[in-house]
Design a protein that fits this description.
Length: 304
């Protein structure tokens, strides 16, 4: 069962209103979208996972229009559906609970499955390709940059040496190899960061996020809200930096007065500090422990 994280906090951040139009760029199992339509809003939900799209279509949710595609194409998809200006945009990033729970998708090192990790199963690149075909330098870069793994060089070297003898075929094979190679270093499994890096590489998550942030802000009307939920420090920093750049700041001038400096269109931060799940939600849904919510509002004078 998929449980939407920070549900009430996200709805508040979006300032959902009856008749409003909202784009959910990462529809998943429609947890947030169902709440929006229940409050009288209309939602255009986008997802690249064919299984998620099929399951939500079967729900026949009134007020929800579904489009298959990547959230990096959020502006193009919205405009193609006649949603050129919207009241709110939502991105709930990362991997969903159903994706983690289905061993055959290959996202989890806790369940034996193929090294796949594709959110869009029409794409060719898989985790198997990255692990077994990337050269050592490229593999190290992926693990260090996307997984923020300190032992990236050691892990990449070890993988290349092992695969020369026998290819990695399953998630548990790779996870156990990494554990034996670097050992345990605390509460988290030593393969956690590597699996994050592989997932992000396979699905171009940082590239998709950059395009989604730009596209989402483009279709947002002045006064509209943009909410993003992240689960990794890497994606949270990207969202925080993008929002801060468009929020800008007033800079004092030597000649007197001040001027605003920042990216256009201009926004204001709805929350100054990322919103996190409370103890009750964490106890009910452990996945919410690492979730962070950030939100902005597009300013009326953004064209100045």
């Amino acid at each position: 069962m998929h449980i939407p994280v920070l549900l009430n906090e996200t709805i508040d951040a979006l300032a959902v209103k009856p008749g409003g139009r909202y784009v959910d760029g990462t529809l998943g199992r429609a947890g947030h979208s169902k709440k929006i339509v229940a409050m009288g809003g209309k939602v255009l939900g986008i997802d690249r996972d064919d299984q998620a799209v099929a399951e939500v279509e079967a729900m026949k949710i009134s007020g929800l229009k579904i489009a298959r595609g990547n959230h990096g194409e959020i502006a193009e998809i919205a405009k193609a559906n006649g949603w050129c200006e919207v009241d709110g945009v939502l991105l709930d990033l990362g991997v969903s609970s159903p994706q983690l729970d289905e061993a055959g998708r290959g996202f989890s090192f806790q369940r034996e499955g193929p090294l796949d990790m594709r959110m869009d199963r029409t794409k060719r690149l898989t985790a198997d390709s990255v692990v077994n075909e990337y050269d050592q330098t490229r593999l190290e870069d992926v693990v260090r940059r996307l997984g923020e793994e300190p032992a990236a060089r050691r892990i990449a070297k070890g993988i290349v040496e092992r695969r020369a003898l026998r290819r990695f075929a399953t998630t548990t094979d790779l996870a156990s190899f990494i554990e034996n190679l670097v050992g345990r270093r605390g509460a988290h499994h030593p393969a956690t960061r590597v699996f994050q890096a592989l997932r992000m590489e396979v699905n171009d998550e940082m590239g998709e996020l950059t395009r989604a942030l730009r596209g989402g802000l483009e279709i947002l009307r002045p006064g509209g809200r943009f909410a993003v939920i992240t689960f990794e420090s890497l994606t949270d920093r990207a969202v925080k930096g993008f929002f801060a750049a468009h929020a800008g700041r007033e800079v004092s001038l030597q000649a007197g007065g001040s001027e605003w400096r920042g990216e256009h269109p201009r926004v204001r931060l709805v929350v100054r500090k990322a919103v996190k799940a409370g103890e009750d939600e964490i106890a009910f849904n452990a996945r919410s422990r690492s979730a962070k919510l950030r939100a902005i509002e597009k300013l009326e004078n953004e064209r100045e």
